[in-house]
Amino acid sequence: MERIIQLRQAVDEAARPRSIVVLGATGSIGRSTAEIIKGADGAFTVEAVAGGRDGRALAQVARELGAKFAAVADPDGYADLKEALSGTSIEAAAGPQAVIEAALHQADIVMGAIAGTAGVAPTFAALAAGRTVALANKECLVCAGHAFMRQAAASGTRLLPVDSEHNAIFQAMGDADLATIEMITLTASGGPFRTWTADEIARATPEQALNHPNWAMGPKVTIDSAGLMNKGLELIEAHYLFGVEAARLDVLVHAQSVVHGLVAFSDGSVTAGLAAPDMKVPIAHCLSHPKRISTKARRLDLAGVGQLTFERPDFERFPALRVALDALRMGRGLPTVLNAANEIAVEAFLKRLISFHEIARMVEEACNSALADGLAREPESIEDALAIDQATRERARFALAGRAGAAVN
Ligand SMILES: NC(=O)C1=CN([C@@H]2O[C@H](COP(=O)(O)OP(=O)(O)OC[C@H]3O[C@@H](n4cnc5c(N)ncnc54)[C@H](OP(=O)(O)O)[C@@H]3O)[C@@H](O)[C@H]2O)C=CC1
Ligand SMILES: CC(=O)[C@@H](O)[C@H](O)COP(=O)(O)O
Ligand SMILES: [Mn+2]
């Protein structure tokens, strides 16, 4: 009798729609998530959405998705959110604590798609509350990878990788024993400067760096991609996510962004994850995992693509990748420092306060000075990671303020 009840519960569970919280609902990943949810024929319901400062855009996505709760991090966005939700039963809230409240709404899956380190606290709160997290926000793992992975194990919850390379690798790995994996390779598009000289890259403008050849993404990740810092952050992300050390992680430049990740095994077999460059593919995979749903995501047309090319990354023209790889190899909290300094440097580049090649230089200086004076240490907890992050930001801002010279580009 008990077995029959269990079976019935399992059937009921499988039949009911999955409930979702979307953190970063107004961004590039957030909008693609909304498209998947709306096209999934009632397979999903949305409990809560959260955004940064655009209350009007958040209200629109909350209405589209029928969310019950909408939280905007910046209190200045509240009036717009409240006004745009009038006449609905959707509750509006504002402030960082309200974003955490959204993350803690009862749901089957939380989509972690806030840009940057602002995503760490709410995403961690969802994980600690036992939610399955579909993780787009790579900065969570770069800033506090140990804490996230430990918490996932302690809460018995899963982190499902949304980042295209990690999602492809996750699918290509299957349930392989880690000991049988010789190498995990992440591909990099090479970004808009793949064929540029070092001098040209050094003088690149924000507009040029924001012009990614294959993906339409938010500004932070697009700038990261242009200097290959994104690939460095992704190596660190892969290290924590898959539990594989730096020596078994590799990068290949693959301009077509069709093969997103590869896994080479001890018997010589290689499996790979392929898809058209459309984030709706990994988003749908994570939201429906372990099942699959039907989507209108772009289909891969290999004959149309014609040629797939692969080359080694150039560490001279793209020093950010070397700096990130060094941080991964050295550990001791350097990924946390790297992540924080990079965010400040990218912000400064976008405000034309520094030139493109100074991003990697600033980040390397932050890592070196953290090593020299003891700031770099393995963060034991999320609070510890955020304290190192904060201290690094203050130093990086101080270094920026002390820079002679006017705006560039
Ligand atoms: N875009 C992509 O294709 C990919 C992105 N990723 C990763 O996914 C994450 C999101 O990227 P992307 O969608 O491109 O970024 P976007 O800049 O497009 O969107 C960021 C989202 O985060 C919100 N946000 C910002 N600050 C806060 C905050 N303090 N609290 C709550 N919400 C906040 C923004 O709201 P508002 O607009 O109001 O500020 C917006 O909804 C990043 O970590 C990125 O590296 C990974 C792989 C691919
Ligand atoms: C879509 C995605 O996953 C991005 O993180 C992507 O990797 C960016 O492209 P690059 O390969 O140019 O960094
Ligand atoms: Mn990626």
From TrEMBL:
Keywords: Isomerase, Isoprene biosynthesis, Magnesium, Manganese, Metal-binding, NADP, Oxidoreductase. Signal peptide: none annotated. 1-deoxy-D-xylulose 5-phosphate binds at K138, S164, E165, S189, H212, S225, N230, K231, E234. Residues 159-242 form the 1-deoxy-D-xylulose 5-phosphate reductoisomerase C-terminal domain. Its cofactor is Mg(2+); Mn(2+). Residues 20-145 form the 1-deoxy-D-xylulose 5-phosphate reductoisomerase N-terminal domain. Pathway: Isoprenoid biosynthesis; isopentenyl diphosphate biosynthesis via DXP pathway; isopentenyl diphosphate from 1-deoxy-D-xylulose 5-phosphate: step 1/6. The keyword Oxidoreductase applies. Residues 274-394 form the DXP reductoisomerase C-terminal domain. NADPH binds at T26, G27, S28, I29, G52, R53, N137, E139, G218. It is an enzyme of class 1 (oxidoreductase). This is 1-deoxy-D-xylulose 5-phosphate reductoisomerase. It comes from Methylocella tundrae.
